[in-house]
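Quick question, first post here. What does this chain look like in 3D?
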Amino acid sequence: MTPEFVIAFAKQAIILTISLSMPMLGLGLIAGLAISVFQAVTQVQEMTLTFVPKILAVFLGLLFAAPWMLEELTAFTANILENIPMYIR
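> Answer (accepted):
Ran it through. Tokens below.
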């Protein structure tokens, strides 16, 4: 294993991690911004009001994105397992 290979492998893993987490983080961000605007307009400053909509948005996003996420993770893992003999050299 060369240092270039390890860096490329780590880069690929980081890119996969970011691409799988971005939809959930984006939905949480959008829900948080919407709740913040609602709180600013109505002047309701309830701390627990922000958590429930964010959690629901992330769970709904996860419900719809789970098959795609599982497919991406499975493909990445299968690629790693298939190429183990090349990695050992």
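The two ends are 7 Å apart (CA to CA).
The mean pLDDT is 91.
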